[in-house]
């Protein structure tokens, strides 16, 4: 008979295995970049009919995030899982367990103004990186919703940034 400890170790091994496979799949960066941009386009084009992503968001609600490229200055769109907090959206820069932060985070650190499409509605936002107690609290809430996130952090070997996207007035 399997003990509770053995069972938990099996679940951790399964989550770790999933995270490692996801990380390997993100290695061919040009292909992944094209896929995520196409995914963002589909999300925007659906006008809110597609609200969750089994592929990139593990069944979590997703939004299309459009940033300004830090080097190119061109609009860059991707799909990220989010958690609503009042009028703001919380996203994490897990990058599927990669040792590097995702490009969209670098773009937001260069220019925090961005645009999101959530439930078919386009909104202007400004990004800020959560720090200290706020970051820890939001990370705990994120892991409650998506337990594999903790495994992604372990595999990445880095602190996963938590980003708050707050509404801003359009200019």
Structural features, described:
By secondary structure, this protein is an alpha+beta fold. The protein has a single domain (4-167), classed as Electron Transport, Fmn-binding Protein, Chain A (Pnp Oxidase, Chain A). It is 43% helix and 27% strand. The chain contains six helices and eight strands. Strands 1, 2, 3, 4, 5, 6, 7 and 8 form an eight-stranded antiparallel sheet that branches. α1 (4-25) packs across α6 (148-156).
Key terms for this structure?
eight-stranded antiparallel β-sheet; Pnp Oxidase, Chain A; 171 residues; alpha+beta; 43% helix; 8 strands; disordered N terminus
List the helices and strands and how they pair.
Elements: H1 4-25, H2 29-45, E1 52-53, H3 54-57, E2 60-68, E3 75-81, E4 83-85, E5 88-92, H4 103-110, E6 113-118, E7 121-129, H5 132-145, H6 148-156, E8 162-167
Antiparallel strand pairs: 1-2, 2-3, 2-6, 4-5, 5-8, 6-7, 7-8
Summary, kept brief:
This protein has 171 residues and is α+β, with helices and mostly antiparallel strands. It contains 6 helices and 8 strands.
Helix segment tally: 6
Please give the largest β-sheet: 8 strands, antiparallel
Amount of helix = 40-55%
- Low-pLDDT segments: 1-14
The CATH architecture assignment turns out to be Roll
Number of domains: 1
Mean pLDDT: 78
Number of strands: 8
Oligomeric nature of the chains: single chain
Alpha-beta classification? alpha+beta
What is the gyration radius calculated from CA atoms?
16 Å
CATH fold field value: Pnp Oxidase, Chain A
Measured between the Cα atoms of the first and last residue, the distance is 64 Å
Classify the beta-strand content into a percent band: 25-35%
Shape: globular
Q: Going by CATH, what is the homologous superfamily?
A: Electron Transport, Fmn-binding Protein, Chain A
């Amino acid at each position: 008979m399997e003990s509770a400890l053995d069972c938990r170790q099996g679940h951790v091994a399964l989550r770790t295995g999933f995270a490692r496979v996801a990380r390997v799949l993100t290695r061919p960066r040009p292909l992944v970049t094209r896929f995520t941009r196409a995914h963002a386009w589909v999300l925007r084009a659906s006008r809110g009919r597609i609200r969750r992503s089994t592929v990139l968001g593990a069944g979590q609600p997703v939004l299309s995030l459009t940033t300004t490229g830090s080097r190119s200055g061109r609009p860059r769109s991707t799909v990220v899982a989010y958690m609503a907090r009042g009028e703001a959206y919380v996203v994490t820069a897990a990058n599927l367990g990669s040792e590097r932060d995702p490009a969209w985070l670098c773009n937001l650190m260069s220019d925090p103004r961005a645009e999101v499409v959530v439930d078919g509605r386009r909104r202007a936002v400004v990004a800020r990186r959560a720090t200290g107690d706020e970051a820890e609290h939001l990370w705990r809430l994120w892991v409650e919703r998506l337990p594999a996130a903790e495994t992604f952090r372990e595999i990445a070997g880095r602190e996963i940034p938590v980003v708050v996207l707050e509404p801003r007035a359009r200019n």
